[in-house]
């Protein structure tokens, strides 16, 4: 990255990070196909075709809550017994399904073939299938593939795999082009619009988002690109962008007033935005967010929270809950801990925070039961049993379905943690 037009920004020193307990044991995870539920809302002319089983189809339909008159931008090409037994040519069947789909939905410009546990078990090569279908349907439709299998992944890695598949298709940034800022991670359109306005007010005009709203708007990338991660679970996407020459701007994630300001400041510093201008642009919005959090802080301050490893959002959430809402962190678990991407977040956690990477669900359940926290953030598979034991829980997957990034969403994020406590108090009254 040339220094002309962009100022490098150093990451927090890794040596200063807290100690982490690594656990390897029985895991409780949700399928990576779940990411399709928020991705299909974002990319308006894309379609997600899962090559999987009836279980995959039921998962997507129940997770999305699709009504009978809706026509979503996802479906499942169901592998029947004949496919699994090798009695039919799965590639021929897939080609027929794709042909019928594109004939029925001519507005599709980007088609994702999404692998699943069944398709991977029978070694169906969807990468080769995507190449074959591209030759047949390009340039009208681009066909890409990624794996949403839940065998070895957490559910948010579905988004990471999808965005990483987009990176090779991104056009090359022209050598003489001005430096560009890329915001990486699926964000609700309202959040994206708010961030665009803030970046424009700061004078950072060359801002693009990945994923884009439409396939034709896929941003260019090159050595004069820098990018901000909007989600902490995009390790593969970040690596792919760095291989294209882009440089990541180290920053906390845009959760809460503090996190959003620090995230925006990373971009402002890189593009030489004057400190006075930065304050003029962000001060009012930050103050509104902090004021909106005051009421929730009264309710949540001093409450003890236990975060099970599930979404990879746990570390930024822990920072927000402790620093902006005054909650006490009993334990912060995360499926994977990317120490470089989370360095700024880890440096803001209270001293002595118990950090756990990986999962041994039985041992973690024992610690949670012993601690009896006021609220437990966990996956759906653990929530109901813990509720039956008298513990108050928050579904971690709801934090992915709900817009929580940015100043205007700070109070909404806090409310997600207040709501279970209010429900519990009403049940007990």
> Termini, distance in Å?
60 Å
Q: Architecture of the largest domain, CATH level 2? A: 3-Layer(aba) Sandwich
User: How much helicity do the residues have?
Assistant: 40-55%
Which CATH class of the largest domain? Answer: Alpha Beta
Biggest sheet character: 6 strands, parallel
CATH superfamily of the largest domain: Nitrogenase molybdenum iron protein domain
Strand fraction band?
Answer: 15-25%
Number of helices: 17
The total beta strand count reads 14
Oligomer: single chain
Mean pLDDT: 90
Strand numbers in spatial order across the main sheet: 1-12-11-10-13-14
Low-confidence stretches: none
Describe this structure as you would to a colleague.
By secondary structure, the protein is of the alpha/beta class. The protein folds into three domains: 145 residues, Nitrogenase molybdenum iron protein domain (Rossmann fold, 3-Layer(aba) Sandwich); 122 residues, Nitrogenase molybdenum iron protein domain (Rossmann fold, 3-Layer(aba) Sandwich); 109 residues, Nitrogenase molybdenum iron protein domain (Rossmann fold, 3-Layer(aba) Sandwich). 44% of the residues lie in helices and 16% in strands. It has 17 helices and 14 strands. The strands form three sheets. Strands 1-12-11-10-13-14 form a six-stranded parallel sheet, sandwiched between helices. Strands 3-2-4-5 form a four-stranded parallel sheet, with helices on both faces. The chain is globular. It starts with 19 loop residues before the first strand and ends with a helix.
Keywords for this structure?
four-stranded parallel beta sheet; 429 residues; Rossmann fold; 44% helix; globular; six-stranded parallel beta sheet; alpha/beta; 17 helices
């Amino acid at each position: 990255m040339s220094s002309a037009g962009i100022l490098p920004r150093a990451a927090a020193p890794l040596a200063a990070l807290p100690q982490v307990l690594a656990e390897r044991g029985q895991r409780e995870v949700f399928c990576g196909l779940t990411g399709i539920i928020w991705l299909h809302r974002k990319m308006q002319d894309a379609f997600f075709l899962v090559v999987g089983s009836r279980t995959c189809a039921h998962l997507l339909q129940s997770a999305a809550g699709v009504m009978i008159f809706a026509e979503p931008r996802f479906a499942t090409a169901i592998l029947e017994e004949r496919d699994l037994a090798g009695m039919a040519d799965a590639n021929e069947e897939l080609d027929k399904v794709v042909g019928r789909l594109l004939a029925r939905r001519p507005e599709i410009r980007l088609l994702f073939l999404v692998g699943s546990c069944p398709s991977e078990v029978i070694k169906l090569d969807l990468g080769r299938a995507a190449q074959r279908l591209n030759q047949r349907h390009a340039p009208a439709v681009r066909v890409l593939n990624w794996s949403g299998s839940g065998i070895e992944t957490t559910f948010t890695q579905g988004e990471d795999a999808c965005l990483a598949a987009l990176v090779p298709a991104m056009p090359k940034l022209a050598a003489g082009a001005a430096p560009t800022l890329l915001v990486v991670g699926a964000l609700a359109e309202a959040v994206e619009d708010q961030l665009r306005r803030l970046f424009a007010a700061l004078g950072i005009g060359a801002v693009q988002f990945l994923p884009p709203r439409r396939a034709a708007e896929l941003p260019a990338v090159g050595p004069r690109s820098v990018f901000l991660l909007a989600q902490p679970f995009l390790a593969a996407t970040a690596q792919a962008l760095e291989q294209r020459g882009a440089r990541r701007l180290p920053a906390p994630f845009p959760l809460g007033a503090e996190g959003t300001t620090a995230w925006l400041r990373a971009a402002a510093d890189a593009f030489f935005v004057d400190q006075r201008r930065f304050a003029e642009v962000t001060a009012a919005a930050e103050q509104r967010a902090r004021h909106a959090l005051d009421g929730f802080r009264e309710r949540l301050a001093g409450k003890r929270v236990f975060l099970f490893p599930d979404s990879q959002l746990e570390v930024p959430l822990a920072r927000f809950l402790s620093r902006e809402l005054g909650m006490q962190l009993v334990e912060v678990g995360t499926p994977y801990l990317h120490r470089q991407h989370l360095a700024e977040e880890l440096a803001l956690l209270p001293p002595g925070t118990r950090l756990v990477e990986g999962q041994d669900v039985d041992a973690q359940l024992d610690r949670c039961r012993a601690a009896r926290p006021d609220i437990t953030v966990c996956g759906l598979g653990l929530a109901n049993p813990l509720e039956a034991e008298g513990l108050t829980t928050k579904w971690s997957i709801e934090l992915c379905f709900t817009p929580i990034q940015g100043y205007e969403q700070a109070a909404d994020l806090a409310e997600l943690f207040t709501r279970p406590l209010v429900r519990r108090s009403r049940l007990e009254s």
